[in-house]
Amino acid sequence: xxxxxxxxxxxxxxxxxxxxxxxxxxxxxxxxxxxxxxxxxxxxxxxxxxxxxxxxxxxxxxxxxxxxxxxxxxxxxxxxxxxxxxxxxxxxxxxxxxxxxxxxxxxxxxxxxxxxxxxxxxxxxxxxxxxxxxxxxxxxxxxxxxxxxxxxxxxxxxxxxxxxxxxxxxxxxxxxxxxxxxxxxxxxxxxxxxxxxxxxxxxxxxxxxxxxxxxxxxxxxxxxxxxxxxxxxx
Length: 234
Hints:
This protein is mostly helical. The chain has helices at about 1-10, 10-50, 60-75, 75-90, 100-125, 130-135, 140-170, 185-195, 200-234.
């Protein structure tokens, strides 16, 4: 038991590992912020494309569906390795020298597919009569979408969006496999150098401290929405 505690929960190694792991965790936070900003915009665009009416928009709808199906079905770790392969060959403007960019691209590709479906569900949850009312007031399709549908849809999907971003925040650790020196890789480096696994506990603590506030905030938003829905039903 003493050996186990020393290997995983050594107070001295915990304190020694904190600066090194923290330097990597700041990279996790940067990747999370950049990827989330890109995902929010790109996923909304794809969700709008999937809902475009008419035959002329059919090819664009099909492309959006194919993209969503492919990247929702492909494990993130495989996408990371494929992006690494593209960067090694210099494809799509990627470079093997920019590991941070490669990690952000992989995270963005996968989570855009997930968040697109979240946005789409929110857009479809807005009753069609509101679109018709907006059109009857002289608004174009785009104006009705911008001023009537999307604001309501975004408000409704904030809790599931936050859940997806909690997952994204944790998945930033996966980019360690291509050499990005984020928290998990820094913890591994410390462990390999000192033959102690406490550094992994340090990394876990950093991720937990970032995740728990987001999770509680999500629970709060869900509870508030349920209260409003019950009040409206009375």
